[in-house]
Amino acid sequence: MKNSNFTFLYARWPEIYEAATEAEQQVFTKSVTASMYCRQAMELVVNWLHEFDAEYTVPYQNTIAAKLGRLLCVQDLEALDGRELGPSRKVGNNATHSLPITSNEALASLKFLFHLPYIARTYTDDPWPKDFDENHIPKDDPVKVALREIARLEEAQKQQQELIASQLKQLEASTAEQAAHAAMQSELAVIKDKNKHIPVPEAGISEAETRRLYIDADLKAMGWELDDARSTEYELGNLPRHINPTGKAYVDNVHWGDDGPPLAIAEAKKTCRSAAEGKAQAVVYADCVEQLHGRRPIIFYTNGFETWLWDDQFYPPRQVHGFLKAELQLLIDRRSTRKDLRKYTPDPAIAGRYYQKEAIQRIAETFVANDGQLGITGKRRKALVVMATGTGKTRMAVALVDILMKANWAKRVLFLADRNALVTQAKRAFGNLLTNLTAIDLTKEREDTTTRLVFSTYPTIMNCIVPPAIPTGWCTALGISTSSSWTRRTAPSMKNTRTSFTTSTRSSSASPPRQRTKRTTTPTRLLSASKATRPTTTN
Predict the structure, then answer these.
(1) What is the DSSP letter of 199?
(2) Quick one: DSSP state of residue 41?
(3) Quick one: pLDDT at residue 477?
(4) What does the CA dihedral 131, 134, 136, 138 come to, rounded to 10 degrees?
């Protein structure tokens, strides 16, 4: 048995002990491997809690991300702070995806992991350590360590996989085993209740370091450069004197464009504070950056848990789930290339009926507003059109897509339906009427990033979403979806159709539209616009 900070886990949780000690042995020598083992140990802890403690119920998705979300939202945070597990998971994911990991990040993840003697002090009467000792972490030459440890690491990894597989099989135990399992839960609940008075150890990392770990992990995952001296704590010397007599300030993060001027700035606040507290400060910094470089950047403000994007020359702030990179240049370019939708009329060969023209004009008026200084600005991001069956809803959708692309409001379109037949029908209609746009059916083909029209059913597009990390470059300006549910109680003459559209330049983690699953009166077909949710090129 190794001399380790995690020795207290050896007797009762050998698999967690093995993963934790492997991470501990490689923090300074192989930071990427250490981060992956930290994430593995954290996942074993969370899975053990959900298996043996009846208070921890498995959420709607049996994934580590969903379980951590449940811990953060509804569980006993005074006993187990789920927020500390988030950075370890993100850093571990970055390590898995071959992103560079520093020894400081690996050490922080290890300290977060050490903060989980919670399971020892809560579910046993055994002694457990309260202080983390860095002297247990070896600082040997990485080459020598690699040559000495490679065989043992391969064996340890195999054992960990076997242990996890064994735990999954235990869930399918016999009736007798289930009874013993319930008895064990009752016994643990008694011990847990008895140990509630024991104070929780303080976190081994400061609040400021926690904030930076959260935000830097998100920035790095979305492709922001953090190594450039101009990208972090960028110094400004033109701050208004009534704010700071020295005229100096520091922008937390700046993302630079290939053409020179910044594309975006990010203002970060502590996790215990509201992200909105950084909004006014970010505006002042954006003003200063614009004065220095001649271009107004896109604004982000965040506290690590909530991130807001604000192109204050067009749309109000909106909450996103990541930091855009590839789409920023497009947002900047559209300030000058986006045209007024209200000045376009639909192609009469596509949608020439008077009510179709009227509907498209009302949608344009819903999306666009006038601003005396900035010209046109975005007004709303959603529109709903109700049309009777047979009045040409698909043609109206095609005509609207045609206008949005000509006006440079949309680059790619996602069309969703609840049945394969509707997807095939819509793709055929778009292909016949918009012959210049490439199209693909995700239910039958693999997506090409150059495709302009993407068609899919709800289940297929949901399978393309991998929470919580969404690939860089996913942003769509318009999504159109159809959902239909028919009842046999009503005559065909009573059928109607509802159509809605949504324009979006939302970041990579926008959610798909909700299906309307209940219909008890007239049969309806819902065509609702949505933020697209599949990784693509810039919008």
Answers:
(1) P
(2) H
(3) 34
(4) 170
Q: Is 303 helix (H, G, I), strand (E, B) or coil?
A: coil
Whether cis (ω within 30° of 0) applies to the bond prior to 317 is no
As given in the structure block, the two tokens for residue 157 are: 């990894």
Q: Over the stretch 72-96, which tens digit does the pLDDT of each residue have?
A: 665 554 445 556 667 778 888 888 8
Contacts of 160 (CB under 8 A, 6+ apart): 15, 18, 19, 40
- 235 contacts 248 by C-beta, under 8 angstroms: yes
Which pair of structure tokens corresponds to residue 58? 């498995």
Structure-derived torsion over alpha carbons of residues 117, 66, 511, 449, reported in degrees to the nearest 10: 90
Contact (Cβ atoms closer than 8 angstroms) between residue 408 and residue 334:
yes
> Which residue's entry shows tokens 């790619």?
412
Cα radius of gyration (the chain): 27
Q: How would you classify the pairing of strands 262-268 and 382-388? A: unpaired
- C-alpha span between 167 and 44 (Å, rounded): 10
Q: Which residues of 59-72 are buried (b: 16+ CB within 10 A; e: fewer)?
A: beeeebbebbbbbb
pLDDT class of 134 with cuts at 50, 70, 90: confident
Helix (H/G/I), strand (E/B), else coil: 17: helix
How far is residue 248's CA from residue 501's CA, in Å, rounded to a whole number? 45
* Separation of alpha carbons 34 and 37, rounded Å: 5
Query: In which order are the strands placed within the sheet that holds 307-310?
Result: 232-236, 249-256, 262-268, 298-302, 307-310, 318-320
Integer Cα distance of 64 and 342 in angstroms:
47
Predicted confidence (pLDDT) at residue 108 exceeds the cutoff of 90: no
Q: Strand pairing of 453-457 and 478-485?
A: unpaired
Rounded to an integer, what distance in angstroms lies between the CA atom of residue 208 and that of residue 218? 16
pLDDT at residue 528 greater than cutoff 50: no
Judged by phi (left if over 0) then psi (alpha if -120 to 50, else beta), residue 375 lies in: left
Strands (E), 280-433: 298-302, 307-310, 318-320, 368-371, 375-378, 382-388, 413-417
**237 secondary structure, DSSP code:** S
Q: How many residues does the chain have?
A: 539
The DSSP string of 51-82 is HH-TTS---SS-SHHHHHHHHHHHS-TTTS-G
CA distance 59 to 74: 11
As a whole number of angstroms, the distance between CA 385 and CA 395 comes to: 13
Let me know: does 260 contact 293? Beta carbons within 8 Å. Answer: yes
User: Rounded mean pLDDT of the chain?
Assistant: 78
Look at strands 318-320 and 307-310 and give their pairing: antiparallel
Distance in angstroms (rounded) separating the CA atoms of residues 384 and 500: 4
d(CA 100, CA 219): 13
- Rounded Cα distance, 218 and 199, in Å: 32
Q: Per mean pLDDT, which range of 50-59, 142-151, 190-199, 274-283 is the poorest?
A: 142-151
